[in-house]
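Hi team,

As requested, here is the filled-out complex form for the adenosine-5'-triphosphate run. I kept the field names the same as last time so the parser does not choke. Let me know if anything looks off before we queue the next batch.

— J.
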Amino acid sequence: MFLLALIRQYFPFSPETILIKYIHKLTSFAYPYVHIKFPEYTGERMKRSEAYAAIEAYLSAACSQRAHKLKADLGNDSTKPILSMDGHEEVTDEFDGTTFWWSSNTSIRQTQALSLYPDQEEKRSYRLTFHKSNRQLVLDSYLSHVLKEGREVGIRNRRRKLYCNNPSSNWGGYKSKVWNHVVFEHPSCFDTLAMDPEKKREIMKDLDAFRKAKDYYDRIGKAWKRGYLLYGPPGTGKSSMIAAMANFLDYDVYDLELTTVKNNVELRKLFIETTSKSIIVIEDIDCSLDLTGKRKQKSKKEEDKSEEKKNLPPGPEEKEESKVTLSGLLNFIDGLWSACGGERLIVFTTNHKEKLDPALIRRGRMDKHIEMSYCCFDAFKVLAKNYLDIDSHPLFDAIRDLMEEVKITPADVAENLMLWSMDEDAGSCLENLIQAMNKAKEEEASKKAQASTEENVEGEEEEKSGAQEEGASKRAQASTDEAVEAEEKSGAKVDEASKQTVCNGG
Ligand SMILES: Nc1ncnc2c1ncn2[C@@H]1O[C@H](COP(=O)(O)OP(=O)(O)OP(=O)(O)O)[C@@H](O)[C@H]1O
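And here is what came back:
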């Protein structure tokens, strides 16, 4: 062991590697087979290889009959599991009367050999073995056949996913995944979305044009991505809109929690790890970080507090503050890295559009600004169809009139239209809604009255204080005049006295 350690110190390659190299050289004359390795990650773990994913899907169909060690997962049809090859397993495949051997390999590499708790990295790969006489067949047709079939199987078996980013502290270690996922099963779609029908049609048309526009984006030299800004008060359907978009386009959703991203470098890594055909969402962007570009001046109190904190050991629940900057986020949206992969929508949502930095939402970055507003009568009709399965009702007219006067969110309308018990019917739900709107109307009226009373009181006070000020200034003016008069009089007296003195003296 000591000698081995010494040798390793002075020779860059381990003796086993050198030995294997020479054995390979010697046997290659007699050994008539060729190997091709397909690692899971390419470019220093930057991005999962598409070839690896396609081969995995291709072999899932081939291996179920022959392999002994398999992995199972649910696919698109959730009743039938999809099998794939487990680590260190081999299967054969026939193509054009020729046999090919596939094996799956897993190795674990320690990434920080000197640390007390080294990180472990799992490296997976597939290996294709074939006779050297079939080299041309493999290069000309077999590999393209595997990749094409694999991609098709992948799309057939694909279950759409909802990803969320892992807090960066968990990235090291055995499972260095930056995104975690669950199956995306949100039922919202454009049919169930309550909004102005014209606006809805326009959005659907825009999305449809986007997904078919690969050639167009190539031609104009732009990355194949589009930004959407959804803004409006809470409960107007921004999240429902994102789900409807994902269902319409059949895309995955990446829900990016910006506050847990440590810095711009991590933000870039997260972006690279997203797949194409996906929507990357940052909800409530105005609350995520201080993205105004100018850091706020810390108050004296805050500074003292952070000084105190520095002297204390960090608590377990204390989170490191995110250092993602506005420029980092702008790069994320349309920097050089944003062109890795394609077919991505980037969606920001906010309740306060006016708080966002104009650079962040300018056209070209956020190509489409969609206002999600209060419920209009057309939107109400969609909700009535969804919740009560009715297209018309005698109470609709009253509701239409009220909606012109009262601001109510679709979420509030939906809440009133829910049939909670068996003895409720459409009529009672609509009455509930009318009651709620009447109440809202009264509240609004009383708020207005309150505001106007306050305004009047303020006006009166202003008037009073104005009058007082006027009186005070008049008084001040009068006293100044008096003083001037007195001064003038005393001046005259002095003149007279001096005249007399002069006369007397003369
Ligand atoms: N436009 C809408 N169409 C259909 N349902 C809606 C709509 N708006 C709201 N809802 C209903 O209200 C619920 C809340 O809506 P949603 O979460 O989409 O609103 P939001 O605008 O994203 O709110 P927040 O800003 O608070 O996140 C949804 O589950 C849905 O049932």
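Two things worth flagging: Residues 293-300, 314-318, 497-506 have pLDDT under 50 and may be disordered. Residues 377-461 form one domain.

Thanks,
J.
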